[in-house]
Amino acid sequence: MDLGIKGKTALVCGASKGLGRGCAEALAADGVNLVLVARSAEALERTAEEIRSAHGVNVIAVAADITTPEGRAQALAACPSPDILVTNAGGPPTGDFRDWGRDQWIAALDANMLTPIELIKATVDGMMDRGFGRIVNITSSAVKAPIDILGLSNGARSGLTGFVAGIARKTVAKNVTINNLLPGPFDTDRLAATMSGAAKAAGKSIDEVKEARRKQNPAQRFGTAAEFGAVCAFLCSAHAGYMTGQNVLLDGGAYPGTF
């Protein structure tokens, strides 16, 4: 299906690997030019060159920490007027809430709530003026079904979800949609880190925890970045203009609820 976004420009955060890269690849496959942001310059440039070669689109790599004011300024200087914005930042560490102080909570809020809000603030009015915009926030299935060891993520990402629920209803009349993508277990470095924390807490090996988690999922496997990217690309498409303020859960059926 032609997504109707060929020639558009997307700012994709956390794009050097994992789910961010999956989104960038899927957008590029439909002819979207990219500005990719990630902290690791070497990995980011390698990803940028591979996408250029594979899809023939313009790709600009910005090595910066998007969770800082300086990093956001660098990204927005390279892409001041994106048609598409995909926000994404690494999740905070796992652990017990009793061990977290104010500094840990503020860091989580800065990365996983306030950074997306700042990026939306910087770009949404231009999108509305131009009559097209797609914003996708990569959050977590923990927003729908909180995970005890991910308390920092549960709190920060839920705050972003509440914010988006309000603003998404104010932008859609101008053909600017804002949605959240909630990944469950995908085969990424983040999943490995979460499993490492769970293994340590349970006194088990990472392989034991990983295999148990795989078997618990109705799909009997973990998701792939390409699958995630395909859903992201649809949300960014010309066909998704009537879909806004939604929390789209991709978890292989792990969430057991009807609603």
Keyword list:
8 helices; single chain; SDR; seven-stranded parallel sheet; NAD(P)-bd_dom_sf; 3-oxoacyl-[acyl-carrier protein] reductase; 259 residues; SDR_fam
Name the overall outline. Answer: globular
In N-to-C order, the SSE pattern is: EHEHEHEHEHEHHHE
Mean pLDDT: 94
| Spatial strand order of the main sheet | 3-2-1-4-5-6-7
Number of helices: 8
Rounded to an integer, what's the Rg over CA atoms? 18 Å
Question: How far apart, in Å, are the first and last alpha carbons?
Answer: 29 Å
Number of beta strands: 7
Low-confidence stretches: none
* Biggest sheet layout: 7 strands, parallel
Tell me the strand percentage band.
5-15%
- Kindly name the structural category: alpha/beta
Lay out the secondary structure.
Layout: E1 9-13, H1 18-29, E2 33-38, H2 41-55, E3 59-63, H3 69-78, E4 84-87, H4 102-130, E5 133-138, H5 151-171, E6 176-183, H6 189-202, H7 206-216, H8 225-235, E7 247-250
Parallel strand pairs: 1-2, 1-4, 2-3, 4-5, 5-6, 6-7
Helix pairs in contact: 1-2, 1-8, 4-5, 6-7
